[in-house]
Amino acid sequence: MAAPTPLSSAPPGPRGGRSSSNAADYAVDPLGFLTSAAREFGDVVSLTPANVLLAHPDDIGRVLLDREGLVAKIGAATRRGPMGFPLAMMNSEGADWERKRARLRPALRSDRLEGLERAAREGVARLVDTWHDGLEIDVHDEMSRLAMGVGAVHLAGRPLGARGETLIRAVAAIMRLTSAPRLPMWLPTRTNRDLRRSLRDFDTTLAALIAEHPAGEDDNALGRLLADGPPFAEVRDELATLLMSGYETTANALTWLLHALGGRPEAAERMAEPGFAAAAAKEAMRLYPPAWVISRETVRPLEAGGYTLPAGTTLGLSQWVVHRDGRWFPDPEEFLPERWLDGGRPGHRHAYFPFGAGPRGCAGASMALREVEVIATALCSRVRLEPVRPERVRPRPALALQPVGVRALVRPR
Ligand code: HEM
Fold first, then answer.
1. Closest Cα partner for 365 from 131, 3, 108, 144?
2. What is the pLDDT of residues 369-399, one digit of tens each?
3. What is the residue with the minimal CA distance to atom 29 of ligand 1?
4. Best substitution site from 319, 362, 371 to test ligand 1's pocket, by max atoms within 8 Å of Cβ?
5. Is the CB of 385 inside a 6 Å radius of any atom of ligand 1?
6. Scanning 231, 250, 308, 329, which has its CA 20 to 30 A from the CA of 396?
């Protein structure tokens, strides 16, 4: 008979990491639950028998930089769950992932961003022209429209026109509906009908964008995808995930940055100084990381913090938890772009990972950073955004960390 596994071999965790009520607590307040789990139980925390939170940057670096096949992004457990757009690079593994990633690389390179910068400045100018002194805006709505427009020009090579609104509505509905608890898809509930309609609108719009792409124009992501002549469904899935992952996260990052600058008007005044906008964007993504948790699955047993985690364990790595850990960031709750100036770094090289890291790190990180910097700087040079009831702002940890309640009065400069 095999000896029973000593209890101490499992990492500690809330309710011994063995209770399904952990899942319920997580569902109610994921940010609070993960933060207190890490602060109370340490750097390796059992959330359930199959789910472990890793909160030490040593472990995070090892897992994200893994090239020895210790972990997979899409493991057996992940594959069992519902997964939209399965043919996209983001949802692929192994040689298939490598081929898809290489295909997009030239279109997302950091030296290919002049067009993006131009589109961003033009987008801001057009938007600000529709505003007037004293207008109250929903900052997230405005930034969403801007990010979808600018992102699509860069990815597809042309403006979306009226289709932009359809895509924004569809993506917002998909995000909202997929992050809420839901009855099985075959049940004719109102939510399911709405989700189906949004998916259909999304599909039709993507199909039109793909069909209309001029043959031979391959200096953008869509053109690169089409150049290889892959099946339609593969192009559709890739374009869908690029637009969804790129737009929602970037709009959130921008909104959080403007919210944070609203609380420190003297920092908003410095946005045009060399290096300041980049530092402010970095700092906003530290405090409000659009990707607030990512996961991996162990393929082989993994040693972490003195524990052996068996194969098949889902590892949670939370940017929200680690970015707000005082061991790596003094005054972790404060918005201090200054901490990044003059070569400033966190207390550990893997304590800051808004874009993930390693081979599966964000393919659009340069694009996103540049877009956020250029848009925020252009906005701050034209207007002052006076916060309206900032005390009501709160994060909603959906697929991305959504800012809720960011409103501002427009004041021209
Ligand atoms: C502020 C904006 C953004 C944030 C915070 C962000 C964050 C992330 C993170 C954390 C990952 C890694 C996920 C993991 O390791 O499990 C990721 C992957 C990815 N991101 Fe982004 N992202 C942003 C913008 C963009 C943009 C603009 C694009 C493309 C146009 C993009 C495309 C991708 C793709 C394709 C992957 C999958 C890479 C792979 O699996 O090899 N992202 N992103």
1. 108
2. 999 999 999 999 999 999 999 999 999 998 8
3. 364
4. 362
5. no
6. 329
Q: Is 294 in the pocket of ligand 1 (CB under 6 A)?
A: yes
**pLDDT of 114 higher than 60:** yes
- The answer to whether 297 and 313 are in contact (CB under 8 A) is yes
Residue ranges of domains in the chain, CATH in brackets: 7-412 (1.10.630.10)
Average pLDDT over the chain, rounded to an integer: 89
Match 């939370």 to its residue by tokens.
Answer: 318
**Which atom of ligand 1 is closest in space to residue 101's alpha carbon?**
41
Read out DSSP for 266-285?
HHHTTTTSTTHHHHHHHHHH
Closest CA to 204 of 166, 150, 261: 166
Instruction: Find, among 206, 178, 205, 204, the residue nearest to 192 by Cα.
Output: 178
Q: Whose CA is nearest to atom 40 of ligand 1?
A: 90
What is the 362 CA–ligand 1 centroid distance (Å)?
3
pLDDT at 6: 42
88-102, 163-177, 336-350: least confident range: 163-177
